[in-house]
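Provenance and format

Records in this collection were gathered into a single text stream. Each protein contributes a sequence line and a token line. The two records reproduced below are adjacent in the stream.
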Amino acid sequence: MKKISVTIILSLFPYCAFSGVFQADITVSNFNSKTNSYEYPETQNFDFDTAGNFFDQLTNKGFSASFPGYNSVTSIVSAKTLYQGVDINVTLPAGSTNSSKLILEIPVLGVTKSFTRAKRSDATDAMEDYLRNDTDRTYSRILEYQVANTPNSQIAGNPTSLQGQLVSSTFDYATNIPPSSPSSSASGTSSGAGGAGAKGSSNPTLVGVGGGTYTQKGLEVSIISVPISKAFGIDSDDPRKKMLINGQFNYVTVGQAASFQGSLGIGYMQPITDNWYLIPSVSYGAIGSVDLASLGQIFSTSLSSNYQFNFAGYDISFVNMFGYYKTLPLSIGNVASSDPNIDNYVFKNGIFPSKVVPFFFGHDVRIKGIFTDTEFTGSEVFVRQYNEVGIELSSVKKIDWLETVSFGLADSFSLSGKYVFSIENPNNFEGYEIGMGYDF
């Protein structure tokens, strides 16, 4: 049987004004030949959503368009910029007809680099190439600083990064094992999505679509994700033993800047007892963004445990995961090269109590509580800890009206809501999620 889970996630966060991930305060001082001095310095503020627009502003064409009277040889330019959360200073002192100099300073990294070229435009191009090509590992060090100190990293350090999405994808699959001894429904039977026992479950193909918006220290990030997973039975004598393959594609936007994440994982579900399962897995993911000049890849390995028992009429699952996540070097011409040295050990634990109860119009519904805690150790990250608290309601039997409107394809319906927050630092990450799901 083919099973398709379609999820729509709406997130409700406090509104905050968005400012570009690339910002610049640029001051231009023009030379007055009559007084033989520099006069009337002019400062302008710029916000950019993309790296391309940011670098374009630091060119002769950008200066000329924004500052009347700018001279590519004699004008002095001072740009104090914020490059995805990292302070970078660019200075263009007065040059000559055949020589121009640019000074690049990154105070938090202790970097000072000079570029002297025949023309000012060549000097600014040389600076851009220096950063994009990761010369002297400067760009990798910028990424390492972002992971630890800013909400801007698309590679690691926050729940919406590639690392955070790999953690979520692996853990979510371990939570989807149906209760081995499901609580009885109000009508005395138990079936459908919420009641199928693990021994009797099939090997579905799951295709989903999800979305969400998050705030990370004032930075708004939106995600549209498409997860795909497939289970394969590998032992005819014990259908609980399965090979698991899951992949996920994410489209992430920060303001108007877009980035793309993709991942693929392989796991194995091994029953230890009738109500305890272990799932070792390995995963690989990559992130690429021309807009954000970001590039990276991560390898991970993890071990998940799902232990189930019945207490006072409730089905309870304890899900624990331990994973290791390591960034790998990656280079794509004309975009960026990076080799950040990020190594993290991740502990994610959750408890999921559930019970089948009578609901409206004679339908039984499984109500499941969601309580998780996620902790990162190893390399320093911006969001080291966060929690999820929520509830999920899912139909136990087929719903006539749902089957009618879906032309007989839909098997069940679910509705969920979660509050996501960080106890360690609530200003770093907080939000609400609402989800609806259909099984086909």
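Adjacent record:
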Amino acid sequence: MPYRDGKSEYIITRTQKHPNQGVRMDRNSNRLKPTLGLFDATAIGVGAIIGSGIFVVTGIAAGVAGPGIVVSMAIAAVVSLLTALSFVQLTAWQPMEGGVYEFASKLFSRFAGFLAGWMWIASYILIGPAVSLSFSYYFTALFPVADSRLLAAAVCVVFTLLNYIGVRHSAELNNVLVSAKVLILLVFSAAGVPYLEMSNFVPFMPSTVGVLQGAFLIFFAYGGFGRIAVLGEEVKDARHTIPRSIVLALVASTIIYLMVGTVAIGLIGAQNLGKSQSPLADAIRAVGIPILTYVVSLGGLLATASVLLTSILGVSRMAFIMAREGDLPTTISRLHSKYNTPYLSILIVGTIMSVLALFADLESVVAVSTFGLLFNYALANVSALKLNEDARLYPRAVPVAGLATCLALMAFVQPSALATGVACLVIGAIYRRVRVWRTRN
């Protein structure tokens, strides 16, 4: 039966081959337009990776890992790279809007695909308030009169509106933000090197467990590389562009992370970083040049802004594709007649993020979000294992290692975050079963 909304028309069909799939939309009548090139996609990846992770989570991780946070960053980078190679294989095989949700659905099972998409949404909805709070902390470091909670919610609203009017405009703004924050991080590193105190690196690894816990937290900072794969329909020549952009974004971000982490520890030590809500701004104060503090704080604002921008982009697209496939209410997949954006999905996601920003605790949402990311990326590796030999770019050992390292990092999740993450999984599974039952009856 046809469903009309303004100038748009979508054809709703009931899938007979797989009765548990429910109501699905005809893909060809409700597709997003490819407008993003290699630079845009890479910048979205870098923008998603370099953000609150380096500007704020660095402090949280330093509190548990000590100077060994540099090792934590390296471990998280290796885990990310192994999983990124699975993403490369999957997107080279068949680039699709929805990323792991689609890959797991086609290669593993529809139920696994649903859980991947569900946990992606849960994880990135929590990233929204985390990065908006990070933004407000750096803003209040410059202008102490601001109310950090209200400011965080307001920032979510602003970037929701930017996503509402189109991915092309969002990508152009993101390119500017990414270029500026990378330049600022390079300035931070260059300015800080002459003032490093080697005593701040002793003892280098006070606790092996702490370093691994730090790697779990820092993975939050790397997790954004998978966001590029969610935009499969909106990237030009996606089969080649997405794999290249994922690797480029991850390599560039890893180099910057290791450089900035080393300088931050050397300037004020892990203990002081662990106490700070704006650790890089506090670190650069040790140089004694006030203008650098303002520059780095500006970098924190730009970094968190670009992550928030791409978070709303990624979550809204995931909700859109799940609705188009019938796993979420189909009304969410409506496209705006003028902007060609999934406007209902964007508005819902932005509203939830804005409300959570008023109440969320930064460290808690980071832990739960990281659990969700690791779950999602574990399924990406499982999906890559299911590829036929002729579609495989790397040996099976690569996704096996990616899966093993994701599961290993999960072992260091905080008990409260683990309980919340498992609760999200259970709620998603129940919702899925109820939706399937209602569709069949």
